Amino acid sequence: MKREKGTKFYALIDCNNFYASCERVFNPSLENRPIIVLSNNDGCCIARSNEAKALGIPMGAPYFEYKKFFAENNVVVQSSNYALYGDMSSRVMNILSRYTDNIEIYSIDEAFLLFEGFEHFDLEEYAKTIKNYVFRATGIPVSIGIAKSKALAKAANRVAKKFPERTQGVHVIDTEEKRTKVLNWIKVEDVWGIGSRYAKMLEFHKVGTALEFARLPDDFVRQKMTIVGLRLKHDLMGKPSIQMEEVQNKKGIACTRSFPRMYTEFDDIAERIRTFSGVCARKLRMQGSDCAIITVFLRTNAFRNDLPQYGRSVCFKLPFPTNSTIEITQYALKGLKSIFKEGYHYKKAGIMVMALSPTLEKQFSLFHNSDARHRPIMKAIDRINLLNGFDLVKFGGMDLKKKWKMNRNRLSPRYTSNINDIITINAIETKA
To answer: Do residues 287 and 52 make contact, with C-beta atoms less than 8 angstroms apart?
Structure first.
């Protein structure tokens, strides 16, 4: 299909049943079996495979209540292995960054890609190439939706995931007919960005589908749902209006940058990681969230074939959820120290904070929690920076030596992040 020069398309790449898929990569015997993943301390169900969903297991099902049901239906129960999931997420995101310079990590298993200057590409075939390579390189299946706006890309991804036999995991909305058909199929409560409160309000006004919402008068939407709702409406109309910074309550926040020049010294990279940590922490506080997982990555310049290449990431669970710049920086620097190697010319680094939860609804531990003294300090500094510029007050880094363990009695090995858990293969010699 011929496209006008300068046409932009957004792609949403979503890992299918991500936690369950990570478990299956290293344990093929789990294929086609119902799998659930439990929350911290093996409390309740936070992830389900399609087979588990088919059994009627609800999200949030308490393990102690469903234990007998799980045994009777041969359900595989896993403790949450965040080290594995975070590392596999980093691998997927690193692969996606090869296909476009514009990537925005939305959560541990989702990312937006912006395709600009792709007028002569067959986007559907290009997406299938991405999908196949991600699976071949990581074993993680993904679904891809492509459209002229982020909200429409979300809708297209929903179709790709719902009808894999027909779409082969890829769906492109590039015509008005496709846009209308998809939005007429999606219920208004399933639209990205519409919460339960707005869904009830829209249903009261006889708005049942995404298409009906997109056809509402602008004045009505602005009055009932503010400017944020109006931007969502325009996005669904195919008029790009939502920027990444305007999406509230993200599931993950990342800050990654290429360096202005190649760095060889640890201190130079550490300064960048401190800055990135401050950005992520500030964004967490702006949306009222804490993080429980941090991923740090580092890599050399892939375009310099004359130099040795190196790239690595590390992911770890924090002993408590936090949005303190001080605490996040401490852990990020600790991660950087574990992956930095002398003798390389580094070009890019970054951090990602995941497993987000509302700050005001956090569950406290008996022994280890985020330092309560940091909260008023962060509030005061944010206020100063807001009024005078975000670079006015900066932070240094300190080591944090606290250790904490969760109850994870069904934890799978950390295949990719612990040398002691690396997968082993039993080879049997056969005679020709």
So the answer is: no
How far is it, in rounded angstroms, from Cα 148 to Cα 245?
Answer: 18
Q: What residues contact residue 123 under an 8 Å CB cut-off, 6+ apart?
A: 9, 11, 115, 146, 172, 174
226 by Cβ neighbours in 10 Å (0-12 / 13-18 / 19+) ranks as exposed
Spell out where 230-385 has E strands.
253-263, 289-300, 311-322, 346-354, 357-358
Strands 76-79 and 35-38: parallel
Residue 216 near residue 233 (C-beta atoms within 8 A): yes
> Which two tokens mark 219?
């004045």
Token code pair at residue 380: 């005061």
Give the catalytic positions in this structure: 110
Please give the structure tokens belonging to residue 416: 């990719």
Q: Would you say 396 and 274 are in contact if contact means Cβ atoms under 8 Å apart?
A: yes
Which runs of E-coded beta strand occur in 133-184? 142-147, 170-172
233 exposed, middle or buried (CB, 10 Å; 0-12, 13-18, 19+)?
buried
pLDDT (tens digit, 0 to 9) for every residue of the chain, 432 residues total? 555 665 789 999 999 999 999 999 989 899 999 999 998 678 889 899 999 999 999 998 998 899 999 999 999 999 988 888 888 998 999 899 888 878 888 888 999 999 887 777 789 999 999 999 999 999 999 999 999 999 999 999 999 999 999 999 999 999 999 999 999 999 999 998 888 889 999 999 999 999 999 999 999 999 999 998 999 999 999 898 886 444 445 568 888 877 878 999 999 899 889 888 988 998 898 888 999 899 999 999 887 889 999 999 999 889 889 999 989 999 999 999 999 999 999 999 999 998 888 887 666 666 677 888 888 888 888 887 766 655 666 665 433 333 334 556 777 877 776 777 777 777 777 665
Token couple for 48: 């389900």
Q: Which two tokens stand for residue 141?
A: 């299946």
How many Å is the maximal CA-CA distance in the chain? 78
